[in-house]
Amino acid sequence: SRIDRRASLYEAGLILYELLSSSDAFELPSLSAKGRQNLPPGLPADLATFVMVLLRPFPDERPNTVQAALANLEQISGQRLSEGLRPPRLPAPTPLIGRGVELERLRGWAEPLLREGRSEEETALALIAGPRGAGRERLADELALRLGLEDVLVLRGRCGESGQGPFGPLGELLRLLSRRRLFSEVDTDAAWVLRALLPERAAQLPDGLAPPFARDPELAHQRVLDALVEHLLAAARKRPLALLLDAVDAARPETLALL
């Protein structure tokens, strides 16, 4: 996800919250819903509001700069706080311009997929298409940010990079999922495929025998695809999972077949 100066403001909000409430901010399921209840009753309302604004989940809802946040705090406290402030090292936030409609469409597509008991007819695949410079990656950045706030594990990769295997960036993403131990519930009949694709992690992967040799190459290829899909589904059963792939137009046929 995009990192800019507003990330530091969220961290500042966490520090202020813990100092004022004497509680661990990370122990609360939702700061926006229950965090204010833990602040002292006698705390000035404008200070409590200031802290909760810093902790808003979406960066666009926080002040754009540290200077703007300090100006608000100076107004609340009546003290000068910004003198001697060092220049910021993180880039300034840049607004998403002209893509609000597309972002809302993506959010509308993702929302039903995050619900329990969703219909199998709801497609779990979306394509962001457009000419070079149209803002496809920035739109994907915003989608990744919002999915992350919904506790979705977002993994990103780029197709067409040198040194990739037949499944392109999906090979490395499978390796990352393996390191997170998200494949423990996979069917043993499908375990063989990761042991073949990731031999260096064979000792950490579930046991399983490879299927009998298939003379038909299409059948052998389909077995690989089915086994890989089973692993991805096993990981998603433990935690909602989103794969964001850039430059799909450069993807190898095996990658497209798996998608």
Explain what this protein looks like in three dimensions.
- The protein is mainly alpha-helical.
- The protein folds into two domains: 5-77, no CATH class; 100-258, no CATH class.
- The chain is built from ten helices and two strands.
- It has helices spanning 5-21, 31-34, 45-54, 66-77, 100-113, 136-149, 169-179, 192-197, 217-238, 253-258; strands spanning 153-158, 241-246.
- Strands 1-2 form a two-stranded parallel sheet.
- Helix 1 (5-21) crosses helix 3, helix 3 (45-54) runs antiparallel to helix 4 and helix 5 (100-113) runs parallel beside helix 6 (136-149).
- The two termini are 23 Å apart.
- The relative contact order is 0.10.
Biggest sheet statistics: 2 strands, parallel
**In percent, how helical is the residue content?**
40-55%
Radius of gyration: 23 Å
Helix tally equals 10
How many separate structural domains?
A: 2
Query: Which class best fits the helix and strand makeup?
Result: mainly alpha
Shape: elongated
Query: How big a fraction of the residues is strand?
Result: under 5%
How many angstroms separate the termini? 23 Å
